[in-house]
Amino acid sequence: MSHLPVFAVDGATLRLANLALDAYAQRHRVISENIANIHADDFQPLSLNFEQQLGALRRAVKDGVPDTVIDRLVGQVHPYAVETQSAAQPSRPSERLDDQMTALVFNTLNYESMLTAVGRMESIYRLAITGS
Amino acid sequence: MSSAYGDLLAISAAGMRVERTRLEVASDNLANTNAVTGRGGEPFRPLRVIVHADAAEASPPADGAMARSIDPMALQGPSAVDVVPVATEPSVQYDPGNPLADGHGMVQVSQINPVEEMMTMMSAVRAYEANVRAMNAAKSIALRALEIGSTSA
Hey, how many other C-beta atoms are within 10 angstroms of the C-beta on B107? Predict the structure, then answer.
């Protein structure tokens, strides 16, 4: 039974969506930090290391491994922030600000689309229960 | 988890505070253009705002790692601002009618660069705006998250 698509909604897919939503919220935090520190002299812009950690997860999903394995891999993903540039090449605040604003808009859109995806999954699940 | 939107707004609020301080200091500098003091008095010197980055970042790399990993949840925005006077010498001018003038009719006039102050004001206003936008984006993310599970997704 657990390989029926409807029940897959309940498991790893939703967990993956949850992981991405958390990561986007954390990326928003990182971008806000970059914008707030735009005039700090000793600040290097940060970026969130998240997509780089998804390689094993992507392969597992592609190979169709069981949900339990995917759950374990999801548990291993921990987004963290890193400094993006070397101190040898500091960029001017005006150059940083527009990049950060672009990233902000992009990240907000990502969050919104992921939420929409979760909503769609939920309606599939509801359809499976009610049949209408 | 990352549901702590209160301190997410706090990052942008700290950034707005910094930009407001820069704006106030630039206004103060402009307002004191041509401030006159008597010889030997303490002249007005233009002030500069020094912004210090988040304390979480100022810490040195842990165990010699090349790139430090920082917990996004620990970010708090700029930690502190210092307002420091710039060591410029006031120009000494001849103004015998001034009640502050010394025996030779000389007074000290503060040296303010209005172009520099205007540039500071401009960049402060723009950066403030950027912080407001980040805060609005956080708000819309938080409000959208409340819609999870509602029927009209």
Answer: 23
Enumerate the residues of chain A whose CB falls inside 8 A of the CB of residue B130: 35, 38, 97, 100-101
**Pick from B112, B91, B116: nearest CA to B29:** B112
φ, ψ for residue A70, nearest 5 deg: -65, -40
**Residue A5: pLDDT above 60?**
no
Burial of residue B75, with CB atoms counted within 10 A of its CB: 0-12 exposed, 13-18 middle, 19 or more buried: buried
With H, G, I as helix, E, B as strand and everything else as coil, classify residue A83: strand
- pLDDT tens per residue across span B118-149: 999 999 999 999 999 999 999 998 888 887 77
For the record, the structure tokens of B13 come out as 């609020």
pLDDT of A70-101, one tens digit each? Answer: 888 888 888 888 887 655 555 666 667 888 99
Q: Does B122 touch chain A (CB under 8 A)?
A: no
Place B115 in a pLDDT band, splitting at 50, 70 and 90.
very high
Outline where DSSP puts E strands in B2-116: 36-38, 47-52, 80-85, 91-94, 106-109
Tokens encoding A111: 């969050």
Highest mean pLDDT of the ranges A25-34, A74-83, A116-125, B144-153: A25-34
Which of B51, B120, B129, B152 has the highest number of chain A CBs within 10 A, making it the mutation to test binding with A? B51
Secondary structure, 3-state, B97-152 = CCCCCCCCCEEEECCCCHHHHHHHHHHHHHHHHHHHHHHHHHHHHHHHHCCCCCCC
User: What residues pair up with B119 in beta bridges, in sequence order?
Assistant: none
| Sign for the pseudo-dihedral over CA of A9, A10, A13, A19 | positive
CA torsion angle A120 A121 A125 A127 (round to 10): 30
